[in-house]
Amino acid sequence: MTTRTGRRSVQGGIGESTIRPDGVPKLRGEFMYAQDMHVEGMLWGATTRSPHPHARIVSIDVGPALAIGGVHAVLTHDDIPGPGLFGLEHPDQPVLAGDVVRYWGEPVAIVAAEDEDTARRAAEAVVVEYEELEPLVDAEEADARDEVFRRMKIRRGDQEARGSVVVEGYYEVGMQDQAPLGTEAGLAVPDGNGGVDLYATSQFVHVDQQQVVEALGLRPEQVRAHPVGIGGAFGAREDVNLHIHLCLLALYTGRPVKMVYHRGESFTGHVHRHPARMWYRHEADENGRLVRVEAKILVDGGAYASTTAAVLANACYFAVGPYKCDSVAVDGVGARTNNPPCGAMRGFGAVQVCFAYESQMDRLASALGMDPLELRRRNALATGDRLATTGQVIDTPLPVVEVIDSLAAMPLLVDEPGSGGDLPGGSGLTTEPRHVRRGVGYALSIKNLGFSEGFDDYAQARVRLSPEGAIVETAAIEVGQGLVNVLAQIARTTLGVSRAEVRHVDTSRIDSAGSTSASRQTQLSGGATHEAARRLRQRILEHYRADDLDDEGVWRGDTLVAAWDDLVRDGWEETVTFRHPPTEPPDENGQGKMHADFAVAGHRAVVDVDPELGLVRVLRVDTAQDVGKALNPESIRGQIEGGILQGVGLAVMEELVLDRGRIRNATFTDYLLPTILDAPDVEAILIEQEGSWGPFGAKGVGEPPTISSTPAVVAAIRDATGKELNRVPVRPQDIALEEEVAR
Amino acid sequence: MIRPATLREAVAARGEYRAGGTDLLARRRLGLHDGEVVDLTHIPGLAGIERQEDGAVRIGALTRIADVASHPLVAGAYPALANTAGSLATPQIRAVGTIGGNLLQRNRCPYYRHPAFSCFKSGGDGCPARHGDHSHGVIFDLGPCVSPHPSSIGAALLTYEAGVEVAGRGRLSVADLFGDGTDGRHDHRLGPGDVLVAVYLPPPLEGERAAYRRVTSRALAEWPTVEAVCRLALDEENRISVARVAVGGVAPIPLRRPEVEDALVGVSASDRTAIERAARRATEGADPLPQTSHKVPLLEALVADVVESAAAGDAHTEAGRAERGLPTKSGRL
User: Which of A21, A428, B53, B294 makes an SS bond possible with B87, Cβ 3.0 to 4.6 Å?
Assistant: First the structure.
């Protein structure tokens, strides 16, 4: 009989900044990304895309492509066995265009060949005769023609309320791209019985599987989607792109088929952040309290639905920001055009409106002669208040005042301009300290966590015991955020063991974990892991009438009543499906409990600007963020620093430029991402408050860093230059010249 | 791929010459290339920097841009060229790209490089940028193409009044290499069989000083919105006796600005007002497009900056900049 010598505390549990299991392999180049997959005998796929934003397909001749040696299949719309449509919210998008192409780069044919070069040559050899049609590329014109995916109307409170101080503004947000460094990639392997295994870049394998099944008219059990290594996502992998194509080619040829998008194709092959136009009117009393907010929000959804309806709804629900106001009118339009389809990207609608409402709050502070932070403090939303737009009572922690106070108290750690060698204008030594003006700007944000509007949002996880320790099985996708760390940490703390790891399993072996988006996996899959581990531990202890479980086994007092190996042999496991508190669809005035939880964040940006040359250097972005409970502080800081850099990108450089529906800059030469030398220093305060329904009170943390960092940077540039700057990204000419974007 | 072992074979070969390949390989992937690749890298004697008997410096066409930036002969006597070479593109590109390739690279216009568009440079007969997005375009509208010439080194060489040696054609001034900007189809005036062999820099003037500045919107790895090079000599009374100013990012060719040069002669090197007045002449004759009017004040401000910097001798040495409390390149990529 083993006697217990002393309790060890759990190593690697929650609250620790444990080292990521995929970290070292990624640094060493040993991690297998989707691009690296290979199986013997596989073919390569490639895609023929429309060169027109809008055209009727007169004819397609696949003959010249098929005539190339080594080509095994050239498939078009007519070769699809099922309905041939897909879509995240409703299936409106053809797997391959049939009669009409509706955006530039829309897939028209797919090929499979012995090698990648042959596949690409064959894709180029497909002869498609088009009759060009006039593309609809202006969202306002689409609105006027009633070409819309969704209209939103929010009316709350006394619509006649009026304030004594009024500010109006028009704002624009350009089309940002997720620009993940890993492009779209996948491999489909036929199982020989009419089914297929799909290994492809994704944020949500169960919904990929479902769309493959529905589009190709297969039975659910015939398609298995497997999680694979992902090089970044940021929303770009929520919709399917090459997934159905790969399955179609694999089933047709009977061979495994691999496809990897090149960089330009990646820019056209996934959805983008919705460009937005926003008209705002804020009215306040002389003490700065918001009396009424009116907004019209127009987002361009592009050619197909994707998630435009949900993005638009989010933009409207968060149109006032984290502020109290009892008289609100918001009208939203999600336009249908012949521009590239837009969908999910980090911040999901909350980004666009945050730029507008925070610009408005600064204008209001200026009109009142009030400190911008003081204005925000006077209007700060708190737990127990109603969200200004939807009227939902906020029943989880909402530390808006704490965020403001933390930002105000943070020391301004900046040197004199140029003393650190970092001046605006990059490597060319363009400017000098005497030309530089410094600016400081603040912004706050609020966003929902998890899916909303009555969506049945759940995640399943399984915890089982193995010789290597506890195993968390999940189909939740790791996109780089650290889920493989945090689920294991939750399992360790909850079970009381020091050994736990996460294993990804395919769609046939576990139910959905939902999407790795909406800042939801730590709360949802974390919640499922927490509950599964809790129940498993409880069942084991009850079974053995024991009082503790650790790495050695089950203990009753100081006596080991069952060793770990015995538990493993008995096959203990627990599977839990976790749901967040239910939400509901909006009523006709946009009112109701549409959201399960919220997170707030605040940012303070410090910039140096050379106003003559229009150059900006973002020196610092300090932040305070509502995290509920910091399960892995280092991972949270990683999310914060990366999210801020993406927000800086939208503020000063990132934009896909369209020319009559065609993306003009689909390369990393012409689509400018911030480099590491553009990255500001970041100091972050994590605000922990108990009361959220996530595991240990944790909240999602992925999106808030991106949302208010953009308006904070623009506010700082305004502070330095006195310019209006009502459009992001702010380009050098916007600073160096007088005109603003006029409406 | 054709791999000539001698210059004579290279002249006889037909196709596109490859030096560092940084531009050519990217264009080949887009289908924007002209026949076979003629690889110049096996021809001896095309790389290297040396001083000639007459005091001039010869830079072989295949000399890496990074070597141009760091070579003591260049950094000491031709600091604006060294600074230009050290500021363009990325460390990776500078380590592979060559001085000849930088001069002869094709235009960076996204329309030219876009499969959905055809333009003068890709064999068509229009300029989609003129009627589309040309916010990166020229303000000196010299020809049918509105995209600025991409060679930063070309602007630097104009201020040094450098020449190039072309196999079979002899010496050519850098100004003649680029022409007058009226030819929308080509980026330079070399034809098939013309192999750029070397760049020649005349001996420097006594006590001359120079500077290079570029405007980019991110820290590095971006073609400049506007760039400017200035080279000056001063007399005993600290007045400007010789001035050479060239600019980039604003015309279909690297552009010398004699109006500024003339206005600078006789101006005191410390007279900021007079320098700024002279710099405003940098935009004389400019005819900005609807989306490039911002480049007019940018160019004037940048030229004033680069002249002031050259006049103060800042760019002559990194130590000189550090003494004046100005940013230096140390710690940057």
Answer: A428
CB B103 within 8 A of CB B188: yes
ipTM exceeds 0.95, yes or no: no
> So what's the pLDDT on residue B316?
45
pLDDT at A739 over 60: no
What is the C-alpha separation between A382 and A370, in angstroms, rounded?
21
pTM here is 0.95
Q: Which amino acid is at B116?
A: A
Q: Which fold has domain A23-29+458-579?
A: Aldehyde Oxidoreductase; domain 4 (3.30.365)
What amino acid occupies position A320? Answer: V
Q: What is the pLDDT of residue A741?
A: 43
Closest CA of chain A from B110, distance in Å: 6
Render B250-313 in DSSP notation, one character per residue.
Answer: SSSS-EE-HHHHHHHTT-BTT-HHHHHHHHHGGGTT----TTTTTHHHHHHHHHHHHHHHHHTT
Residue type, A358: E
Domain ranges in chain B are 45-107+149-201, 221-323
| 8 Å CB contact between B316 and B209 | yes
- B130 interface with A at CB cutoff 8 Å: no
A·B CB contacts under 8 A: 134
Check whether A742 has a pLDDT greater than 50.
Answer: no
- Could you report the per-residue pLDDT of A318-361, keeping only the tens digit for each? 999 999 999 999 999 999 999 999 999 999 999 999 999 999 99
Cβ of B298 within 8 Å of Cβ of A435? The answer is no
Q: How far apart are CA B140 and CA B154, in angstroms?
A: 17
- Which of A435, A734, A720, A732 lies closest to B304 in space, CA to CA? A435
Give domain limits for chain A: 23-29+458-579, 34-134+178-269, 276-452+587-736
pLDDT 10s digits, A369-407? 999 999 999 999 999 999 999 999 999 999 999 999 999
Was domain B45-107+149-201 assigned CATH 3.30.465.10?
Answer: yes
pLDDT tens digits, one per residue of B218-228: 888 889 999 99
A738 to chain B, any CB pair closer than 8 A? The answer is no
What are the chain A neighbours of B302 within 8 Å (beta carbons)?
430, 613
Phi, psi of B42 (to 5 degrees): -95, 0
Q: Is A418 on the interface with B (CB under 8 A)?
A: yes
Q: How far apart are CA A638 and CA A634, in angstroms?
A: 6
What mean pLDDT is predicted for residues A541-557? 96
